Amino acid sequence: MRASELTKKIKEQDGEDAKEGKLGTTNNINVGDGLYLRRLPSGTRKWVFRYTNFARKRVWFTIGSYPHLSLAQARGEAARLNADIENGKDPSAERKRDQQETVKTVEQLFLDWYQHDVSRRLKNPQIPQRIYRKEIAPHIGKLALKEVNARDIRAIIHKVANSGRNATANDALMVCKQLFKHAIKLNLMDYSPAQAFTMSDAGGQEQSRKRILSLDELEILFRVLRKHRDQFVRENYLAIALLVHLGVRKNELIAAMWDEIDFDERVWRLPSERSKTDVAITIPLSATSLEWFTELKVRACGSPYVFPSRRASKRRGYISSDTLNHAIAKLFGQKVDSQKQPTANLLGEAGLEHFTVHDLRRTCRSLLASLGVPSHIAERCLNHKLKGVEGIYNRHDYLNERREAFEKLACILTPIINDMPNVIPLTKQYA
Q1: Cystine design at 326: which of 277, 336, 358, 428 (Cβ 3.0–4.6 Å)?
Q2: Which stretches of 285-378 are assigned E, i.e. beta strand?
Q3: Radius of gyration (Cα) for the chain, nearest Å?
Q4: Phi, psi at residue 283, to the nearest 5°?
């Protein structure tokens, strides 16, 4: 087929399909020797090559776009592909192998690992992604795989550990181990530069945290937060309040959507896909927490998220999982922004020992116990699965009992968080 004949064939095909209303469909013109010119539903055309692989399956192999690739060039490529097949090669398999060989740097390795493993396997793939971006990429992201050695891994984990973040150092080591294991799996490396390191080389054996804030400490905390509103915005303040009051996990709260909050029924229906335990739960809301959600609804300005992202450039619609951590860390005088100098240790100077956002969940559990809430009710308030035989046979939701527990908790937290004396009614709003 000559080029002029191909042009004529294209016009005839488009004319016939236009009459039959098929221009928005895929259609092929057989050029010969396995070469076809394919029209896509969008109207664009591509050169494709059809062959049968060794598994006796028909394969369509894209060569290039038309008219960017001429008829003569497409025929030449088809002839080369036919020769490869005669020599025992599979064009599609060869292309995939070539694509894998483009993974030459640590950054390219991470992208491949994230796409083909992490994003499919993990419920929260953003966690190892954040560890890589913050702790690993700045050191070795641009290095070729063959240039990375054990000293690079040691430098990464020691820098994190020396900053006082032992748990993060262990996380960074774990990400490095899994990342380079992925490289070995793809035959991109013969050994892992992270293999010889253990937790003792990074952050050491992690101890279970026992930090619980007392009521006096909570009073100090919220007083400092109110005093420094220029550094701790109102949305963050209400988020901390809800974490202490409801005992939910941070990521469950910051990603909450308004269609989960039922103001009429006074409940928050947390779906299973957003629960760490993969179990949905209906969380009863006290009058105080409803007031906070009502204020957040106004501040959300129509966003479907309770805590919408504060930057238009962010790809997701809600605040980062680091937002609250960084806001608290700044008030402890810690440096969280490489471009800015740390501020004064405002919380420490007020008499507070260091705590993390997750300690607020433990604090909620402790407060419930101090109020005489039965253990099994308090555990269900935190969406913990009941242990042992009781967990197997006792599937009761305890919604009413949990509502009563949260109302009791609101009675002692509301005066502290809303900054009013105990004699003021619970329903009075914070001005």
Answers
A1: 336
A2: none
A3: 30
A4: -100, 115
